[in-house]
Amino acid sequence: MATSPCSSSGVSSSSSSGLGADAGLEIRTRSVEQTLVPLVSQITTLINHKDKPKRSDKTLQAIQRVGQAVNLAVGRFVTVGEAIANENHELKEEMSIACIEARRAGETIAQLTDVASLDHPESDSHITIFTDKTGVVKAARLLLSSVTKVLVLADRIVIKQIITSRNKVLATMEQLEKVSSFQEFVQIFSQFGNEMVEFAHLTGDRQNDLKDEKKKARMAASRAVLEKCTMMLLTASKTCLRHPDCESARINKDGVFHRMRLALEQVIDIVTDSRPNGENEMAPISIYSGIKEFKNKVEGLRENLYFLSKENLSTMLEVILEHTEDFTDSAYTSHEHREHILELSKQAKMELEQLVSVWMQAQNQKTKDLMEDLEVAILKTCQCMNELKREVHSAATSLAADLLKYHTDHMVLKALKITGVEGNLEAVAEYTCKLSEQKDQLVEMCRLLRHVSGTEPLEITCIHAEDTFQVTGPQIISAAETLALHPSSKIAKENLEVFCEAWESQLSDMSLLLREINDVFEGRRGEKRVYLSLPRPGKHNANLKALKPVKLDTEEQAKIAKLGLELHLLTSDVDSETEKWEDQENEIVQHGQGMSSMAYSMYLFTRGEGLLKTTQDLFHQAEIFATEGTKLASALQAFSDQVHEDDKPLLLLEAEKLISMCKQLQITAKASAQGKSATFTKVDACILKTRNVMSLLCQLLPLCFKLLRKNKAGNGCLKPAPPWKEDRIRTGTNAHTPERRVETFGIKSLENHVTNMTFLESK
User: Fold this and answer.
1) What residue spans of 243-367 are helical by DSSP H?
2) Are 182 and 301 members of one domain?
3) Per-residue pLDDT reduced to its tens digit, 74-85
4) 240 and 298 assigned to the same domain
5) Are residues 337 and 359 in the same domain?
6) Would you state the pLDDT for residue 33?
7) For residue 607, what are the contacts with CB-CB under 8 A and spacing of at least 6?
8) Backbone φ/ψ region at 79: left (φ over 0), alpha (ψ -120 to 50), beta
9) Which range marks the domain in which residue 377 is found?
10) Which of 338, 371, 537, 587 has the most neighbouring CB atoms within 10 Å?
């Protein structure tokens, strides 16, 4: 995670010019970081230009226009910041100071760049960018620091909104716990549902904005818990109201409330970056990450024989081999896998001993023979670790595949439902024991999969799955016991159904997780970001009836399979194009990767897999995809100001095409569709239009890459400022229009103003 603006790839370029921002400001979100990148780029170019010997009249005029335009943009930016300060009194003092500093820095830059009217801009009689070289650096540093501070303070308001929303949810939950009548419960739950939707949208936006992939995965896990628990809370509470003296019903309800509170707290911990009880990591190191680090150290000996001690290397191997005991001690690991892991562990120790022996000799005497022996020892050690990695991966994934296949029939859950309705307490007790055994197996499977997941986000997903099985198992048991005690109770039956569905859903998710783990192991897709659709408003509505999800049947999936396959191939092409870019934080790359990830989710939907479960999920994803495409078009339009005039029309034409196609997709996704045939036609149209957008993206990315390289190879001349968009100013600074306050006073409005600071580009 970045700890200052200069730590991001886009901002680090300023270091060569002596630029920097307040090191105490921590940038945790992409929106703040990407808002600063263009400003840093332009000011850096301006400062670098002060040392160039050739200063034509055209160049001097361009410098002056840039200085004036930056000052004007800063003034408008500050106006929005001051309006935010007036709306949020607890931040007023800090925000006002930052705004004053930014305004002062902008005015200084304007004064120092006032050079076009001077006959001799280098003359000491008039202080300019050419005579006071340190002055412009100081002004630029102050401007960056103060603008960053304003953005970070504005970001605090977003955090405050999430905390306030969480507090409202908690307060309503307390009321729900205490209600004693159905009528009162219905009223309060309706309010609770609306508050949960608001919280889901706020946290969903925050999740996609987080820079840290680990935090993003933790946020996704917590939000998934909250979404599933909302329906559980409904049926568990209704069961308790219907059977107030039933102990198992009370235990069932208390478990849901407890889990929701933990998930709410986890979200706030992530948003505020707090770690309770000194927590630094969610879990101990996995075998995969341990092997990766160990191999890096071993291979580092080729470059430096003295950068670590043999004790450090031995300790690292010991930790890895300790973790392999999770496999060798597991009752679910096959005898064959156990024997192979033990053999490879023994071999790894021997290879390290040989490596250390040659390494110590090479430190004393660097002969050609010894260096060749060292290379052989390094290769053999790394090969052994690769084989160990392959073996534990095979052990974990084969166990998972067998268990998931064995439990696909859900026989235990079906038996619990039947015996519960029969009121057969003895049979329910028998099947709850079997469910507990199944839970233990699945929990062990998740622990082993975590060791071989390959990426931190997937590790967190494994931990979340383990926790879900650990908690949901006992909840199913308490729900089944309640039904057995009250076999004629419709609400107790419905409650057991909800918890069983959660279990089945998690098993289904495990199949997808297993496929993703195998993809990472085999080098497919890697650490691609996953965009989750936000929960839809009204999902838990006032009438307390769950919406019937609409899924494609087998015939419909077959019809749409070819289109889905084309979409899959296009995502691979886009991924290949984005990987060519050196700067992976580039806005064009970020939007391209996001669109590819969403398109891949839509492809999985055509196969009946993935996170998009219903047609409504697909339509919502299509809307988000179109929005992301529109953002990419805006980035392309901004990029067009950097390219040569001859190349600009083509780029703008392609951007306009993209905007038009995304608008059409938005219209299709939002159109109503009644009936099975109309819904399938809409699904087909959404995927077809998504495919067309991806085809255009495959053409756009190489074009931008080519223009970027051509741009970097240019002469670095200055370009005049584009005209200011007055309508954006009025929207951003209209502090007296109450209905626009939510849109105006936040990080987005500040982004608009900093985006319009990009008056200077080097070609």
Assistant:
1) 247-272, 287-300, 310-328, 335-364
2) no
3) 787 788 778 888
4) no
5) yes
6) 67
7) 557, 561, 564
8) alpha
9) 287-400
10) 587
